[in-house]
Amino acid sequence: MIRKAAAALLSLLLVSGEVARAATPIARPEAPRSIPSAPAPLSARMAEPAVFPAAPSIAGVPAALPTPIPATPAAIPNPGRVPETPLESLAGLSADAKPEPGARLRFDGARPESAPALPGESAPPSTPRPSQLARTEKVRFKTAVAAGAAAAIAAPVVLQAAPALMMVYTAAAAAAGAGALWAINAVARRAARRTTGPAKNRPRRAKAAMTGFGLLLGVVLGITPLLFSRDIIETGARLVVPSREVRAVDPDFGREVVAVLSKNSEGRKLLDGLRDRFGVLRPPKFFIARLNNADGFSFPVLNGVFLDPAVITSRGWTVKEFLATPEKRGQLAREADELLFHELFHALQFRKVIQPGQLERFPRQLHRYLTVELEYEANIADRLYVHEKLRADPLAAVYDLSNYSLFLDDLDAYLESRVDDSSATYALFAHTESRYYRQVLADQRARMPALSVEGYSLLARRFRSSDPELARQYLEKARRRALESGLAKTRS
Q1: Using CA atoms, how far apart are residues 332 and 257, in angstroms rounded to an integer?
Q2: For 185-220, what is each residue's pLDDT tens digit?
């Protein structure tokens, strides 16, 4: 019994000693509001080295004593700001925070940076990570490149220097160039990744310089397909459609065409329509390609006029000879001027961003870009070009005089004969309801009586020496049309 009592007493003393030692750091005395310069002497009781008296040893085992409280106020550590409320003491602790084993919890009045913002409190500014900085700079640079490329691609259309559909070609070419540059950049960055450190937050001037460089790069990507369209189109056609045998014609052929058409009043009107907003003449490029079903074709996506090789070989030349000989190119420009006028007139029509009739009866005609009425207008224009040629010289060379005669006889019959629905060229053409085209046809019908009288008179003068009977027939047509239309006299 004595042993059991001694063991229980010893355990009680040991436990009481550990509790006192653990409680001593927390149970700090309240700091005095003001410490006097000369502290008062302590009483004999306060001068004792420990709060608890010494415990007797039992069975030779000394009892654990609690940690003594400092005896002088100068030795008392500054407890810092004491929280006034329980909620304030818990505000600096996050829900997931766990103290390390053996660590002492001490509240210093400040909140950790990782603590969430309280209601009504603005979150402190966070420093972006290197990955976020790199991603932001990439987005800013790519946006600048896209903006520069879009401006360069849209500028020719806004300035009326190219058809709107050409943006399809320039955008595709610019995207291909950008893809090649990005691939090269990705390989270079991967090769240099080991030597480069993490991304850093650049100064404002450096960011502005990178944005400016992105805009410049985008402009270069957007304008390059325009500056080198002849070479790009020829090379691309060889890869995509090699059976067409596309060949670019030297730019001096375009200058020859401009020189020939400028001698005609209708030709000058056409060329004026091909000028941009600054008055600079912007004709399309010329190419040779196998068209199979047509002598010429104006393609707005590439802003080019394509001529079939038969137009060249029918004159006894090869395509290679035509491309290498300036004299042959000049001769073709003079002899095929009606065909070239017709295709250039289509190029003028395609300079309109919205074709007549597309927005009428919306949206049923929105898809009608190539229309029969568009071809009607071009065929009327090229017959007026022939009429002006004959006015200047009744003996001038005319490619197909029978079409001009039919044009004078019956305008509607002539237009229907020019648009063959069975032809592959006009398979995609559809009629459209358009106030513009209705006005064009109405104006031309009103002009036809006087124009036909003059035209028949010009044909009579043309055949007066070579075929007097045919000349007499044309003169009779002129007189009859003058009587039918109520004109006072016949021009002869």
Answers
A1: 9
A2: 888 877 766 555 555 666 888 888 889 999 999 999
The token duo for 3 is 């042993």
Q: Read off φ and ψ for residue 247, nearest 5 degrees.
A: -130, 135
Cβ count near 372 (within 10 Å): 18
Q: How open is the CA angle 353-355-359, to the nearest 5 degrees? A: 100
E strand or H helix at 384: helix 372-392
In a 10 Å sphere around its CB, with 0-12 CB exposed, 13-18 middle and 19+ buried, how is residue 335 labelled? middle
Q: Report the C-alpha dihedral over residues 381, 384, 390, 391, rounded to 10 degrees.
A: -130
* HSE (side-chain half, CA atoms, 13 Å) at 130: 5
Give CA separation, 154 vs 102, 160, 450, 455, in Å: 71, 10, 44, 44
- Rounded to an integer, the average pLDDT of 237-257 is 95
Query: 247-248 and 285-288: which strand pairing?
Result: antiparallel
Tokens of 455: 């035209």
CA dihedral (37, 41, 46, 49) in degrees, to 10, reads: 90
Six-digit token pair at 386?
A: 């022939």
Sign (positive or negative) of CA dihedral 485, 487, 491, 492: positive
Helical pair 204-227 and 166-192, crossing angle rounded to 10 deg: 130
pLDDT, tens digit, for every residue of 127-167? 556 567 667 888 888 899 999 999 999 999 999 999 999 99
- Residue 472 CB contacts under 8 Å (≥ 6 apart), including other chains: 460
Percent of the chain residues past pLDDT 90, beyond the cut: 57
Domain ranges of the chain: 134-191+203-227, 352-492
Cβ count near 438 (within 10 Å): 13
Copy the structure tokens of residue 186. Answer: 């990705």
Give the pTM.
0.71
Is 97 within 8 Å of 77 (Cβ atoms)?
no
Contacts of 122 (CB under 8 A, 6+ apart): none
Q: Please, how many CA atoms are within 13 Å of residue 140, restricted to the half-sphere of its CB? A: 15
Whether the pLDDT of residue 180 is over 80: the answer is yes
Cβ-based neighbour number of residue 429 at 10 Å: 18
Q: For the segment 32-43, what is each residue's pLDDT rounded down to a tens digit?
A: 555 555 555 555
Q: What's the CA gap between 161 and 163, in Å, rounded?
A: 7
Which H or E run contains 403? helix 401-409
At 312, the amino acid letter reads I
**Residue carrying structure tokens 């509607």:** 412
Which residue has tokens 């160039």? Answer: 177
Cα within 13 Å of Cα(408), Cβ side: 23
Q: Which one-letter amino acid corresponds to residue 237?
A: A
Q: Any bridge partners for residue 306, and if so which?
A: 287, 297
DSSP 8-state symbol, 124: P
